[in-house]
Amino acid sequence: MKEKQPQLVSVPFFEEEEKIDFRKYFSIYRSYWYVFALTAGIALITAWFYHKLTNPQYAVSASLLVNESKGNNPLDGSSSGTSFNASDVFQGFDLFQGKQNLENQRQILKSWTIISDAVDKLHDEVSYYVVNWGHTSELYHKSPFVVKWNKGHPQLIGATFEFTVDDKGHTSELKVKGEKPAIYNYENKTVLQKPEEIDKTIPFSINKTTTDSQFSFCVVPKNGEPIPSGTYRFSFHNHNGLVNVFRKNLTIETVNKDATLLKLSMLSPTPQKDIDFINQLMEVYQDQNLEKKNAMATRTIQFISSQLSSVSDSLVKSEQRRESFQSKNKLLDISYQSQQLLDQMVTLEEQKEQLTTQQAYYRYLLQYLKSNNSIEQIAAPSTMGVDDPMIVNLLQQLTSQTLSLKTLKTAVIDPNHPSVIQLRTQIRVTQKAVVENSLNILKQNNMALSDISKRLNNLKRATNQLPGIERNYVNIERKYRLNNDTYTFLLQKLSEAKIAKASNTPDNDIIDPAMPDSNQPVSPNKKMDYLLAFLLGVLLPAIAFSVWGLMDNKIRSDEEIEKLTNIPVLANVPHSPEGENKRTSVLDTPNSPVGEAYRALRQKIRYLIRGKEEFVIAITSTGPGEGKTFSSLSTAASFALMGRSTVILDLDLRRSNLASELHLPKGIGISSYLTGQHTREEIIFGSRHPKLKIIPSGDYPPNPGELLTEEKLGVLIEQLQEQFDVVIIDSPPVLVADIFQYAQYVDGFIYVIRQGVTLRPALERAVSEIKKQQLKNVGILYNDVQHSRFGSGYGYGYGYGYGYGYGSYEQNTAKKRKRKPLNLLFTNRKQNKS
């Protein structure tokens, strides 16, 4: 046996830091462009259906100016000239008076009481809808019919009533559905009963009353015109439910932190309903404010009127007494001295009366505050002649704070809310200031009254020295003038109160009535939704393919092979539509793309083995299914077509299927040769091409590894090398140790990698094993490459016209249909011997 000293050549191998391969992902995206187009189309169609079945939402807003008047207030230091400021007390809460008042107005506007009054004036107990393609739209003030119901009869709320009108004006039966319905009494606004889920159909006709134990109503066409064909719905709402809906949808916010302008806004599919509600709400808010001011003016008028009635009686009596005294005593004039005394006494009496009245008011005020009565019922100080600016301002401030607290309690349930606590603290401080000022004024009035009394006593003593008639006249005239002046004063105050009531205006102004912010809906935003749908349709498959690309551990491109090893890639074999089952494709169509690829491989092998004319090539792979046997046949056929005698030696003793696929006799092959059952000539089979011979593996031996270590195998390889120009060995996978048993007889190795089949970890182990075993002259054959797979192409054309006597590609393609079946391409053993 000829001994060979193998030339050991190290196989280059290196590892590279893993980096993101953008070209790979771009190739994946490009390969599956139709998936992106499909998902983007589905997303856009979904967005279109979403817009078709979704009611657009419109924004409506209005602006309201809250006027906050600020007068002289002793609590803020404006009148006292001191540096004390009551707002400093609340700096820890960050709640200054102006900001707190604005927040109070926000709470008042959103309070249950205000919204409830606005809902009562809307009369929106019934909602009307039209149904198109399963999509429901509300017909606010656009319904072709009106539902008239009996308020004395209970009505079903929380349920929908649906009927259909056909082209002839005929109506269907009425469908009543509701998941959580309730029977409601509109007269006393109470829920009578909450039945279970309702779903029933009842007879129904237009202009006829439909009565049931749960409802009673009549559907009447609007303006007497026929109802257009279509499907309609209507539903009843209770008062509390409507109030909750409007409170939830209403948003009130300040326009600017330094301004007292409030913006009222709503968002719903029925902008006109929101406009009507907001306008009605602002009107109710202003009416309530005006009513409070008018109520105070009315109470003042009533108080003055009651005082006028009493003073009027006293004035009439004093006037009658004066006239009677003058007539009886025939008095026309009195002396200058008595007249002077009379004038002084009348003046002092007026001052005393005024001080007494003021003193009574201050006692009344202190008693009123002590009894904790509502400050809203207190009489205005001006009605009693009290014009002290400090008391007037304090009472106005106390009234405003009390009203704000009362209104705030309707919106804030928690008694410990910071706003409530702050207002209560303000009220206590103001009340204390009123009490202290009232006590001080009472002391001053007592001193003034004492002085006036002394002066009156002196005048009375002087009057007593006058004649009796003059003295009596002076007393009568004094009382008359006092009553007359008091009556005149009260008449003046009554006129002022009536004028004030007539000129009362709300403290708040509507700057902008409710109107849509834009003619375009706020949502859905078609442009944005279509853009998002398109991006989503593109991103979802991109993410899916990216994740798949990260998790995919199969070889997909030349670049991946180059990252794992720098073993040269000798050729890229393109994917053939006929697939791997067509083992003789190179013989049948040598000028096909597959044939051209193996022709290029044949040229690269000459460089791999450094120009040897007779050589042995072993073809291996990582595992089954990678095209190792197909590559062995095709490579051998390529050399045979060149005119060189070639033999295929199948040494894959573990799971070879070459003999069965080529329909060769069973039991004859390498295994039978190595065990001495057949001779070398008996295991060589011929093929249709005279230069190509086949040596199958034979039966599966129980010990293939030990069998391949026989020296007889080396002898056979050397004999075949002497007999044939080219020996192609169909080897076991490289991860099986069998290939290394006869590596010393091989001039070069071709490692087959199949696109989409060979695993990266397996390739890494195989390359590591090749390096470890120091195999020489190793090249890679990249098999079954599709250009559409992640952009990896094979780079060969389809128009080659040269061949080796087998005609053009088109001619061979036509001829292959007339060739014999696969089992007739190989001769029997006797023919092989010849």
TrEMBL record:
Belongs to the CpsD/CapB family. Belongs to the etk/wzc family. It is a multi-pass membrane protein. It holds the Pfam family Wzz. It comes from Prolixibacter bellariivorans. InterPro entries: AAA_dom, Bact_polysacc_biosynth/exp, GNVR, LPS_length_determ_N, P-loop_NTPase, Wzc-like_C. One of its GO terms (cellular component) is plasma membrane. It catalyses: L-tyrosyl-[protein] + ATP = O-phospho-L-tyrosyl-[protein] + ADP + H(+). It is found in: Cell inner membrane. Residues 616-735 form the AAA domain. Gene3D superfamilies: P-loop containing nucleotide triphosphate hydrolases. Its main location: membrane. It comes from the Bacteria. It is an enzyme of class 2 (transferase). This is non-specific protein-tyrosine kinase. PANTHER family: FERRIC ENTEROBACTIN TRANSPORT PROTEIN FEPE, TYROSINE-PROTEIN KINASE. Residues 18-122 form the Polysaccharide chain length determinant N-terminal domain. Residues 470-540 form the Tyrosine-protein kinase G-rich domain.
